[in-house]
Amino acid sequence: MESQTPAPALLSVRASQFVILGLRVLTSIFLVVSLAILLSNVLSGDRDHKVHFYDFVPYRYMAAAIVIGIAYSLFQTAVTVIRIRRENHRSILLDFYGDKVISNVVATGAVAGFVMTAQVQKDWSELVGIDAYDKYIKRSHAADGLVLLAFACTFMLSVLSSYALPKKVY
Asked: What's the CATH class of domain 13-164?
């Protein structure tokens, strides 16, 4: 029988920890900026009527997904920093399942935002060319896009945590 030698790792353990830390920080930044845009995005019609994100259920869902993503990302960023400083091994199952769940939550939040923005554009198509409306739509797209970028980071983290799992199981 031939003995199988393990494939060489692309990154050292220490380097991979710094990549993971960088992705977690990027995720946090994208989500915080997206939440700030979403919270400050207000369309003023009349004196008495303003449109906020919480007037639409999909935007509320997106905001909840962002807050959950920020909380998890900040928690995992702190844990990663502690692991790097102490040179501890990773908690593989927490990372594996947590990254999978958060990746899905953030992805569905981004989709909800994009769908709502498209619906708003469709419903308010007669307002095209009004500066306040155009600004509202552009800011909505910016918030949606940043959540999508955060999803890309969480997806990469999810893949990285998947690779680490078989090393600990076998």
From this structure: mainly alpha
